[in-house]
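Suppose a classmate hands you a notebook page containing two proteins, each written out with its sequence and a corresponding row of structure tokens. How would you begin to make sense of it? This section walks through that situation. The first entry is reproduced here exactly as it would appear on such a page.
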Amino acid sequence: MDIIVAVMPKFATFLTSVLIFINSVTGSFTPQINTMKNITKICDGYYVMDCDYDYDALEILEKGVDNTVDLLYSGLKTVFTKRRGFGCTTFNSVTKSGDYLLSRNFDYMDSPALLVRTTPKNGYASLSTVSLYFLGYELDPEGDFAADNSGSNIATLLAPFLALDGINEKGFAIGVLELETKPTFQVSLKPNLTTTSMIRACLDNAATVDEAVKIFRSHDMRDLLFDECKYHFQLSDANGESAIIEYYKNKMHVIYPEKNKNNRVNYQAATNFHLIECADDPDGMGQDRYLTVMSKLKKTRGILSEKQAMNLLKKVSMKDADLHGYICSTLWSNVFNMSKKTVSVCCFNNYNRKFTFSVSKPLLDQVNK
């Protein structure tokens, strides 16, 4: 795609901020140009991108994202304000052969999706998924993405910092889900991380659930990208461990699964309502999806093949559902295999076509095989 620098005035400040931020973490722009050039369409509305520019994962972890917060919040609020209503589902399971899985539906308004591979210095390689809607892009009639306001794909350079789920080379995986209560805004002497930069920090630096929980505990959570909701997260790893992290009244809670008699399968699920008992959550959504998933996991003792996990995602998927006035569908269904370090993807409710990608190789090499 061509990079169009001339933009409408209200978007120009945002794109200028993108350039300044990217230059500040790399010192060069050639890798960024290469990154934008390698965006590849896999099917209508779904793309992959190898992030060729480097960044210091430890610096983000240690210093927080004060500058990035300013960038994202001031920039993205020119694209959308007070958006809410994405309804997602996550659950973990294990195959008969012992592969640990984390499965995830992302349900939102029709918009393009991007799978990003990053290989930061001082950090782990990972694959993560981004809704390009949050960078100002929309689907055009041909199923391609087009930038709302600008026609430029330069904003995709921020995609690694807007991850909504992902898996890294150590087999740690994570997904975020919306809650319909007031945003989390913690204030202490800890470094700050936003919703999506927390995911980035965990993918870059955590090999296990325990390590990710420590990252959460050592940072203040700031839900700055939206005005009307907060988020919770499901974490899982190649050891079969799982946890759900929620915030309520600015206090962090870690929910672990109940272990069965043989201590073999630890499974849990999340949708769009609080799981901690103390939470007042009258607008919570997805109780039906949650019960469907937990009923299946209970019946199988948490044992599902990758195909069965994808079929369960299909069963709780959405098509033109009304969520708080927003018409939403399942944009992608991911089954992360933490043992094999892969992700299998079905896009836009098309469960007859599946794509599988490994963390270990550049995405373009896998697409062009």
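The notebook's second entry, a different protein, reads as follows.
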Amino acid sequence: MNQSKNILIIGGGSSGFFAAINCALQHPEAKIIILEKSNKLLSKVRISGGGRCNVTHHCFENNELIKNYPRGERELRQVFSQFSVIDTIEWFAERGVKLKTEADGRMFPESNNSETIINCFLSEAQKHNISIKLSEEVLSIHKSIDKKLVVETSNQTTIFDVVICSIGGHHQQKNYEFLKKCGHTIDELIPSLFTLNLPQSSIKELMGLSVKNGTVKVIGTKHQYTGPVLITHWGLSGPAVLKLSAFAAADFFKLNYHAGISVNWTGNLNEEEVKNLLSFNLSSKALIVNAPLLDIPKRLWEYLILKADISLSKPWVELGKKQLQKLAQILINDVYSMQGKTTFKEEFVTAGGINLKEVNFKTMESKLMPHLFFCGEVLNIDGITGGFNFQNAWSTSWVAAKHCLDK
């Protein structure tokens, strides 16, 4: 019987609520408290996906799913084997929340409103008599004589059988102080998911334009990604850039966000392939500017022609070998100087957090302090944009809830 068991959930965000509700489902006799240091609950859920809440991603193969995590790929394999994307969809469906899939694989509630998810969580918490305390901060956790956990907060000191830490990702080390006191290592906190600032480039004047298939590379590193590239009033964004920023987060940090960026506007074509493509038009009397290739938007095509020192009044038939080569080079290796970053809208994600070697991913329990569990972005796990960070939250929370009273 678990009637005397007290479970504390630290953090009133997505992973905290999911852990608390699943603790109640798995251990109905336990007393569960959610402790939130601010005066708001589920704030990131509310603004995620432009207010629609990108619950998960339509990626049902775990071998493919884990590839979307720059940090935590290996560890999440054993987590997703216990609670998968399909399990997530079924969990919400059982509570009247049906999800829909968009063309890019992102999954949202059919209502297109994040309040649907929030109301689901609050309703479940009330249904299972989960206590919620706001504006109370955890200051320290330590072991008691009888192997329970003594939790000191800004308001009181209480003893719990289990503590599940789901405080999310933070930019400042001070938010992890009570975990450092437990002996845990906090891996360096660095930004992930950001756009590339190109302050010296006139390409910003083309803000709003995008190519469906560009390859963006950090010069001097192995990092490059292919996908939609969006030009903004800051510089470059879009899925390819955001994925690059996540996987190259540590390198960007070391470079102080000053780096050479190369864009292949053709996707993955090489110089010879592009030259051959351009050569098909060399007998044409049409103006080069009027014949954009490879779905490149006309204004961007014009910009690239001028960058190759080709007159806008020049017809294809007058294009010389050197100019053709220069245009081909610009199309596959358009170089920019990145000077800084801009956080990607509401999708703020921090790489860093609890060192993964200090956690047992079969149970999500701390290897250093028994009965302390972790879930969500407090761990040094982060996914690219598209619902992957929420899937990490749901899966790690479910595993922690299932195993927290094993002993």
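A careful reader of the second entry would note: The longest strand covers residues 210-218.
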